[in-house]
Amino acid sequence: MRYVLGLDAGGTKTLALVADEEGHVLGVGRGGPANHQEVGLKSALAEIRRACSSALGEAGLSPPVDLAIFGLAGADLPMDFELIAPAVRKLGLAKGIRVENDTMIALRAGTRRGWGVVVVCGTGFNAAGLSPDGRGFRLPGLGWMSGDWGGGMDLAREAVRAVARAWDGRGRPTLLSELLLSTLGLSSVEELISALYLGQLGQPGGLPEERLLELVPLVFEAAAQGDDVAQGLLARLGEEAGRAAAAVIRHLGLEKTDVEVILAGGLFKGKRPLLFDTAAQTIHRTAPKALVKRLEVEPVVGAALLALEGLGTLNQRARERLLSTLPPELRSEPV
What global pTM score does this model have? Predict the structure, then answer.
């Protein structure tokens, strides 16, 4: 029996999955953030090793397995692959290891046909696609410097901006003000601004920018309560996700096809119809036949599917077996 290892290393968490060549899920492991651009290569490798070792231990296996596919946030440019690929191979986790950008595993996890378009709204933001004839296109995914807006950190910063502008009178009042201050344990907007400034400088008493990710759920909470500022932020995010997908669709010439468009990442999890519907409407202006769907499993599933494909054992039965043996924590609730 041969075995595969799939990995999804993101800006918030790392997930590893071990399966046999027939698609039975044997083990799952977790680690912390592993985007080398944010935490450094040494820390990223440590979290990758931790997640994979945990999954292999649960499966009762010792490395190396036969094939591993690693989907990595931060694997954006050729120089990233030149840095990361040799480093992960030295971990000795598999006889063969292929490194992909994390968009590719999310795409494989969500599409039945193996081609389509994916938009990932997680800690960061990216979009990519594959055509039926194997042509690919991916946004650089380097944040503001490559024109991106739409990840969790972007949304959190906009929430802070809205609160600051509501406080000084340039913006409209918003429920976000009370929610943000309460969550962060602060008493005033002035205190919030000072804490963020000190955090940026690395001074005592400062609020590290990473903590802004705690604010993302508050935007959805305020929007659900009818706050028009929060609803505006989510509508903007949905439109941006839709525009990114539409750009990839145009690059690949898929405007007239029934292309599958997968909306993935933490921001698309759960019942968030405003975000999903706005994205879908924007996509359909470019590709009316597009099949827009939310990713219903963790992207690591796509890494495992690609690994099975690499072994030559992926068929409909193996796919169904993999999906049917997934633990509940690797599934998402339907929209």
Answer: 0.89
